């Protein structure tokens, strides 16, 4: 075809410019095999490190009072709907608390369940002033429960050296606080072992 010589000349000139390190013989060898690989040296881009978004520190949370309940909100009646939601949550979790339900199955579920909204009573304690405190759990931390009583008083009860009881649909469960020193999020993933004797 017309212009084929011009095309060859253009390709030769283009390859010489594109591959300056190759000799003429090597370029001709590439052309005879009809496979042209252009050498392209690209600069490696430095990978940008993604900055992790940092949350608030414990000190900042305290300063911002994120976990504090305002005095006007410290009323037992406000949290009764939360307790009703909790009871429904436990019934769904245990597939309905029927009379023939195995107690150890319910106990195992309660160990990992979220206790916010549960009504608990301190039944035993090494500190007698804690015994008899009854109320709805508003907040659970690693070492303490924050409980609102019927008298609209917010009590901070340590888990250590205390035994708590909670009742739902006639089923009573006991929580040994000394074995319960975990955050709610950590407790849901923990494997609890059966122990023969438990004491304060």
TrEMBL record:
<dbReference type="Pfam" id="PF01868">
    <property type="entry name" value="RNase_P-MRP_p29"/>
</dbReference>
<protein>
    <recommendedName>
        <fullName>Ribonuclease P protein subunit p29</fullName>
    </recommendedName>
</protein>
<dbReference type="InterPro" id="IPR016848">
    <property type="entry name" value="RNase_P/MRP_Rpp29-subunit"/>
</dbReference>
<dbReference type="GO" id="GO:0000172">
    <property type="term" value="C:ribonuclease MRP complex"/>
</dbReference>
<dbReference type="GO" id="GO:0033204">
    <property type="term" value="F:ribonuclease P RNA binding"/>
</dbReference>
<comment type="function">
    <text>Component of ribonuclease P, a ribonucleoprotein complex that generates mature tRNA molecules by cleaving their 5'-ends.</text>
</comment>
<dbReference type="GO" id="GO:0006364">
    <property type="term" value="P:rRNA processing"/>
</dbReference>
<keyword id="KW-0539">Nucleus</keyword>
<dbReference type="GO" id="GO:0001682">
    <property type="term" value="P:tRNA 5'-leader removal"/>
</dbReference>
<comment type="similarity">
    <text>Belongs to the eukaryotic/archaeal RNase P protein component 1 family.</text>
</comment>
<keyword id="KW-0819">tRNA processing</keyword>
<keyword id="KW-0597">Phosphoprotein</keyword>
<dbReference type="GO" id="GO:0030677">
    <property type="term" value="C:ribonuclease P complex"/>
</dbReference>
<dbReference type="InterPro" id="IPR002730">
    <property type="entry name" value="Rpp29/RNP1"/>
</dbReference>
<dbReference type="GO" id="GO:0005730">
    <property type="term" value="C:nucleolus"/>
</dbReference>
<dbReference type="InterPro" id="IPR023534">
    <property type="entry name" value="Rof/RNase_P-like"/>
</dbReference>
<dbReference type="InterPro" id="IPR036980">
    <property type="entry name" value="RNase_P/MRP_Rpp29_sf"/>
</dbReference>
<comment type="subunit">
    <text>Component of nuclear RNase P and RNase MRP ribonucleoproteins. RNase P consists of a catalytic RNA moiety and 10 different protein chains; POP1, POP4, POP5, POP7, RPP14, RPP21, RPP25, RPP30, RPP38 and RPP40. Within the RNase P complex, POP1, POP7 and RPP25 form the 'finger' subcomplex, POP5, RPP14, RPP40 and homodimeric RPP30 form the 'palm' subcomplex, and RPP21, POP4 and RPP38 form the 'wrist' subcomplex. All subunits of the RNase P complex interact with the catalytic RNA. Several subunits of RNase P are also part of the RNase MRP complex.</text>
</comment>
